[in-house]
Amino acid sequence: MKIELREIPFPSEDIPPSCPQIAAEAYEQRVHLLYSKAGVDWVVVYGDREHLANLAFLTGYDPRFEEALLLVGPRQQRFMVVGNEGRGYVPLTTPWVDALLCQSLSLAGQPRSDAPRLADVLGTVGIGRGARVGVVGWKYLEPEETDDPTRPAFVPAYMVDVLRSLVGADGSVTDVTHQMMHPTHGLRANNSAAQIAAFEWSAMRASACVFRLLHGLRPGMSEFEAVGLMRYEGDPLSAHIMCATGKGNIVGLRSPSAKRIELGDGATTAASFWGSLVCRAGMVLDQVDEAFFTGVVTPYFRAMATWYQTLRIGVTGGEIHKAVTAAFGNAPFNSMLNPGHLVSFDEWVHTPIRPGSTEAIASGMALQTDIIPYPLRAGQALNCEDTLAIADASLRAELQSKYPDVWARIGARRAFMRDQLGITLADEVLPLSTAPAYLPPFWLKNKSVCAVA
Question: Which of 110, 222, 298, 360 has the lowest tally of Cβ within 10 angstroms?
Answer without folding.
Answer: 110
